[in-house]
Write the structure tokens for this entry.
Amino acid sequence: MTLDDKITELQGAMTVRKHSPRWMILVIDLLISLSSITFAYLLRFNFDTKNIYFENYHYTLIYVFVMRFLIFVISRSYAGIIRYTSTKDATRIIIVSFIGAVAYVLINLLIVSFSNLEYLIPMSVIGIDFFVSVFLMVAFRLMVKSLYIEATTFFKPERNVIILGIDENALTLKRTLYRNMNEKYKVEAFIDPNDVNARKQLDGVTVYSPDDIDKLLARTQITEIIITDNNVLRGKSKAVVDACLNNGVKLLKVPLVQDLINGEFTSKQFKKVIIEDLLGREPIVLDEDKIYDDIRGKVVLVTGAAGSIGSEIVMQLAKFQPKSIVAFDQAESPLYDLELLLGENHNFRNFEIVIGDITRRERVEFLYETFRPEIVFHAAAYKHVPMMENNPEEAVHTNVYGTKVIADVSVEYGVKKFVMVSTDKAVNPTNVMGASKRIAEIYIQTLNNKTDVAFITTRFGNVLGSNGSVIPRFRKQIEEGGPVTVTHPEVTRFFMTIPEACQLVLQAGTLGNGGEIFIFDMGKSVKIVDLAKKMIKLSGLEVGTDIDIQFTGLRPGEKLYEELLNDRENTVATSHDKIMVANVRLYDNSVFVQIEQLIALTSEHDNFKLVGTMKKIVPEFTSKNSIYEGLDKPQFRKS
């Protein structure tokens, strides 16, 4: 006989069928009712069966049987599936038993009122019977449920888990795991991420400090650690995560607690912890009232609305009741996806989807003429460093000329505020892409001094999961069995989640009066090779055994580390602790002529001449790992 056959036989012996017949439950409830009333009589009269109330006791049993049968059938209290008994079933039993007790009392009062007979059932017996019958019926259901769970998991291997968190979610999770019929779990420990409740007990399980993780892993064969709240993945909890990854312990997180309570729980509801969870930082506190005052009732244009940053800006803007949002991009399919997302998931209807290219001035003018935007969030740009290094004409055409078109038309149509999304690669640029974004910054900063439009720049590093981000590429390489390719063992990058970056863009827009370059607190830079190793371990694989890491060398224009400030720049704090203002070099109006000349050079198809002109506009632009490094020699800089 196989293991499955044994489980099936044991389940069958205990439950007769997967769903026991309803009449069987009804019969058992009636037997419990008769036993309960009998015990109530015996208890009330000190087990003296010669008492006068026992003389016609057989009539009482018939009366109780008929009354209970009618109440059970009308209420269908026997219809619940016992193996899924919950507090709702217990509540239903209490209500049904209470109705029965009230019926007994009313009939007693009627008998006394219209005859000289005594109570059919003594009032004290009715009270005792109520509590005993409720206890027995609930206990019966819980016993069957417990036996069923034990039967279904009896031959299954025990999975030892640790729960990271000691909040209500953690307690609910522990109890749910023990009720799980598909897996056999044992919660070995809770870990308090705040390290204040160590050595205490929670629902019979010991609470430990994050510092105890190594002892726990050495003492017991832990298969997984389950995290109840992503917000605990900070501080000392990071050490817990690292220890689990180094010991091959799976990291899982649970869905919302209401899903555990209201829905049928299975282990399939667990989600794997992903690298974005581990790189998350403290939640950002926004001055939403200020953003609301800025956005409410305004027509807002978002360029590059189909991109990862642009689309998130659009979705976050929807919360602040703009008059309408104009989503502008040339990517047809992603714009369609955004349209569906806004309507179906965000229930926002005041938007316009417009396909077009920011470098086509006539299309941009038509857009402004039609919708009259008051606030512009300019996120459209080419951002891929090696691609732009090989295609500098397109970098200048889109990032510089495209920004110029949007900015000039914004001035022409009286836009109140213009917020440009820039990049940390614009600081001391070592590549064409970063230099093109720096020139775009210079243009709108200088234009700010000539117009009434408040031109604002926001500058930040890499965002997790964005188009072209290293994380989706690593994830795909891992799924395909590797190798995972990293450019250099020492390369580092700043990371921020897409929602976090876009929140700060909106907040910076409220802080700016025009001309500022806002930089965001990106936290600590992350070593890319460490990022790759963590992603491999999160997938349950071993570096060097299951998947190799290969170093491919820095790509054209790439540098080992990113900066958020130019060497000559310093910062000034703002009212928001995550946002600072950079003191940057200012340009006079002659830069407009230089930028016009740069744009004109795109038609000559001479990349070296084009990049050389970029270096004259941005003196700190020094190429790295690029064919344009020769242009940084003194004779070329002076010419």
In short: The mean pLDDT is 81.
